[in-house]
Amino acid sequence: GSREAAVIVFLMFACYLRPGEAFNIRVEDIVKPLQSKRNPGIKHLGIIVGPQNRDDTVLLDFPDFANDFMSLFLHFRPLSGFILKQAAFNAIFRNAVQHLGLPANTVAYQLRHRGASGDSFSQRRSPQQVMARGRWLTLSSVRRHSKPGQAKRLLQELPASTQRHAAACAVLVREVAPP
Q1: pLDDT, tens digit, for every residue of 73-106?
Q2: 23 with 30: CB under 8 angstroms?
Q3: End-to-end alpha-carbon separation of the chain, Å?
Q4: What is the pLDDT of residue 114?
Q5: Nearest alpha carbon to residue 106 among 90, 82, 85
Q6: I want to staple 44 with a disulfide (CB 3.0 to 4.6 A). Which of 40, 59, 123, 173 is the partner?
Q7: What is the pTM of this model?
C-alpha cells in the first residue's frame, strides 16, 4: 500500500490531480512516450485525466525523474491500475503527515494546489499553462490556488530532517528505476 500511496501523492502533486482523478487512473490511461531517432515525438509519459469524451492529457514533464518514477510503478503494477482504496490511502497519508512533522491539518487535496504553486513560483509554467494542466476554467481560479509565497514559506518551515529525507528519496527513485 505504501508504494501505491507514494505514486498517488506524486501524481496529485506533479499533475495537479484531484484525489478522485488519481484513484480513477488505469494503466491504459498512462500513455508512454512516442519517440524515435527520426521522430522525436513526445518524450514524456502522459496521464489521460477526466471523462472518456474529453482528452485532458497531462504530461509528466517535471521533475526530471518523473518518467523513471512512473516506469518503476508500471513495471510492478497489474493492468487494473491502483489496488489501494481511498480510505486506506487517507490513513497512510495521515500517518505520513504525522511522521514527517507536517501541520496536522494537511490534506491530500492540497497537493494539487502545491504543485501549481511550485510551477508558478519557479516560473516553470505560465498562468495559462497552469490553468490547462489543472483543468481550471478561469485564471482567477489559478490565482486563488497558485500561492508561490505560501509554498516557499511551507518548504522553509519543514524540519531539516524532512527536507533531507525528501532529497534522499529523489536520489533513490533515480537509482531503482528500471532502464
Answers
A1: 676 565 566 788 899 999 999 999 998 888 889 9
A2: no
A3: 24
A4: 85
A5: 90
A6: 59
A7: 0.80
Express each pLDDT in 140-152 by its tens digit: 888 876 676 776 7
Pull the grid cell for residue 135. Answer: 483543468
Give the cell for residue 70: 512512473
Residue 63: is the preceding peptide bond cis (ω within 30°)?
A: yes
- Phi/psi-derived region of residue 40, left when phi > 0, alpha when psi is between -120 and 50, beta in every other case: alpha
Distance, in Å, from the CA atom of 65 to the CA atom of 52, rounded to the nearest integer, reads: 28
